[in-house]
């Protein structure tokens, strides 16, 4: 696929659509369940920028910053991480509205002793971080589908503006 994605005879918009179709669809498989930490977010951003650089045939030796690369290809910001967070929030709302095994597992507590060291980042912690609300507020809002969709849209728009 590298010859197709780097071919200059094909417009960048078409190559971008091909990338989203063939690469992103495989990469985003089950991303709703990922627990995102800072290093994973950096790796996701790096993957997206690597793809853009390959498609635009921009060498690492040119020492262009990511913002310059995005401006050159006509994008304002990266999209992959935003897509992952959107899918996670939509999945959370889906789980909250239905009685299922996933809901029981998500709300359940594990019996036993607490592990040593710092508590690991949790999936529900990602939801809190993305929505900037406490998890109990998210639970109430997620029960109303329309309000939850507005929450998702407003939070991701704010995140895009911060970048």
From TrEMBL:
PROSITE patterns noted in UniProt: PROKAR_LIPOPROTEIN
Superkingdom classification of source: Eukaryota
This protein's UniProt keywords: Endonuclease, Hydrolase, Nuclease
GO MF terms, alphabetically ordered: endonuclease activity
Designated name of the protein: Endonuclease-reverse transcriptase
């Amino acid at each position: 696929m590298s010859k197709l994605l780097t071919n200059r005879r094909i417009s960048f918009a078409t190559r971008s659509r091909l990338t989203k179709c063939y690469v992103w669809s495989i990469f985003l498989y089950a991303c709703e369940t990922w627990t995102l930490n800072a290093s994973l977010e950096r790796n996701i951003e790096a993957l997206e920028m690597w793809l853009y650089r390959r498609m635009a045939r921009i060498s690492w030796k040119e020492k262009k910053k990511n913002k310059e690369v995005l401006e050159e290809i006509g994008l304002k910001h990266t999209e992959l991480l935003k897509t992952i967070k959107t899918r996670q929030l939509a999945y959370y709302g889906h789980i909250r509205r239905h009685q299922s095994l996933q809901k029981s597992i998500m709300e359940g507590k594990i019996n036993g002793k607490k592990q040593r060291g710092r508590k690991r980042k949790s999936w529900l912690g990602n939801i809190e971080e993305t929505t900037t609300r406490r998890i109990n507020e998210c639970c109430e809002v997620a029960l109303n589908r329309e309000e939850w969709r507005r929450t998702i849209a407003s939070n991701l728009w704010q995140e895009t503006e911060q970048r």
